[in-house]
Amino acid sequence: MSKIWFVRLETKVLYSLKVFPMDRPNLIARITQSRVWRSFFRHGWPDNPLDRSLTMTSNIFFHLHPVKVSRKSLKWSYSFGLGIIAAILFGALVFTGLLLMFYYVPSVERAYPTMKTIQLSVPLGQFTRNMHRWAAHAMVLIVILHMVRVFYTGAYKPPREFNWGVGVILLLLTLGSSFTGYLLPWDQLSYWAITVGTNIAGYAPVVGDTMRQMLLGSTEVGQSTLIRFYTLHVALLPLLVVLLVSLHIWRVRKDGGLAANDGPDAEYQL
Amino acid sequence: MSDQNPTTNEIFPKGTSKSFALVELMRGQSPMVGKGPEDTVFSFPVVLLWEITLLLGVTLALFWFSLFKQAPLEQIANPMVTSDPAKAPWYFVGLQELLEHMHPTLAGIFLPGVLVVFLLALPYIDHSRENIGIWFSTARGKRMVGWTALYTLVVMPIYIALDNAFPLREILRDSTAPWVAQWLLPAVILIVLVSIPAIVATVRKASLREILMVLFTVMLVSAMVFTASGFLFRGPGFKLYWPWQMPDGYSPWMEL
Q1: Contacts of B6 (CB under 8 A, 6+ apart)
Q2: What single-letter DSSP state applies at residue A69?
Q3: Among partner residues B59, B73, B89, which is closest to A193 by beta-carbon distance?
Q4: How confident is the model over A188-197, as pLDDT tens digits?
Q5: What's the pLDDT band for A259 if we cut at 50, 70, 90?
Q6: A193 to chain B: closest CA residue
Q7: Helix residue ranges, H only, chain B
């Protein structure tokens, strides 16, 4: 019902604004025909099928979406928007994480004092840290729920097998990002949680000790662990997440959009 | 557009430079093979409006929550003083709970490894394209998931409580080799517990998809039970307590 409402609202707004550049040469027509607009966009005002299609295909951010989507896949109770929510939370984490990076120093001596500084004297520092932490927990939860949704709707089936695999890797990367960030405050909570967590890696047969030492950079959690976790947390893991999320979303489109589209007789070609 | 306007005005608006072919609107299937355009909308702007709504909603929720709940910061890390209980982050605390019941290699490496392989292999095991895009596929599938969830919700806490009251590791310490008490027996118990609903489903002629839904549900609900047990019910010394009877004013919620 709500998406119909959206369509109506949008149509109404466009009608009331008299956004018909071809009908009458108004402001919008002048804008879309200006040299500046035409240097930015390779399409006109998106009030007709052609320009709406071009809006999606000619924009680097929009082109991950298909030009048209089925009404079924917009149904809220089908997907609950969990994938989009996860992506939004990741964006919030990148933004707040960047702000925290301006102050945080990944050294055993200075990590904890800089946390105190962030919380006590940086404007909105405590608030930014709160946002980063709660968004991180929420992202882990939402990514798990997203996987559960995809499983129970059978959306992992052909032709989406590969994208399901990408999703599983993304779940592991999300856990890794959260876990590596957990150590950074360098308080008792983070220190012992990481000690417990990395001890589990040490139980792997044959390679356990090597794996644990590679992770810690030492035999126990210390400076070398902090800098390793920091580098993983702010550089390697987010980079991998961005790459794989791009692949994941692009692949959703290439595999025919949300699985809600697929009727029993939907055809696909490999 | 007012309703008084005759329909022709809507289809052929006056004073326009647009040209129209001589067409008639009618209901019916389009000749396009596969997905027809009947039930689709342009992504611009409908999908984008959805996304902006979600963006605003999530951001507001995050703002609101961050105003009221502070992120925890305890004393500076001290390797000399073990914090008690020392718990992994909540999403790994289920594994930590498992560690209490079996050999760490089985609980911390082998089982998670099996689960990840199970997840990755899922679409290659069940590749039929029946009932795609339908929650729980069929009404029967939904019932099966419900019963399996209930079964797991009952059986796994009982396993945790029993193994806690009569730990195999301690009871069999002198009578058998450690690998029996810490590897063989817990593995057999888990396999039996997981197999029961799958066998029941097979006997009832469940499809492959339904059997996988049963197994996935066991995995999911078990993970929830073990996480809840480790997070809510483990207090100082990682011993089991009722959440409302935690000693020393310990609260897991302070350590999120």
Answers
A1: none
A2: E
A3: B89
A4: 999 999 998 8
A5: confident
A6: B88
A7: 7-11, 43-68, 93-99, 104, 111-125, 139-165, 168-171, 178-179, 185-203, 208-232
* A208 or A80, which is more confident: A80
Among A109, A122, A124, A188, most B C-beta atoms within 10 A, so best to mutate, is A188
Question: Which pLDDT value is given to residue A258?
Answer: 87
Whether A72 sits inside 8 A of B99 (CB atoms) is no
Per-residue pLDDT of B14-57, as tens digits, reads: 555 555 555 555 555 444 445 455 678 888 888 999 999 999 99
Residues 164-183 of A with CB under 8 A from B: 164-165, 168, 172, 175, 178-179, 182
A153 and B134 within 8 Å at the Cβ level: the answer is yes
Domains and CATH numbers, chain A: 2-63 (no CATH), 76-258 (1.20.810.10)
- For the cut 80, the answer to whether the pLDDT of residue B207 exceeds it is yes
Chain A residue numbers touching B78 (CB-CB < 8 A): 188, 191
| Strand partners of residue B234 | B240
DSSP letters spanning A205-235: TTTHHHHHHHHHSSSSSSHHHHHHHHHIIII
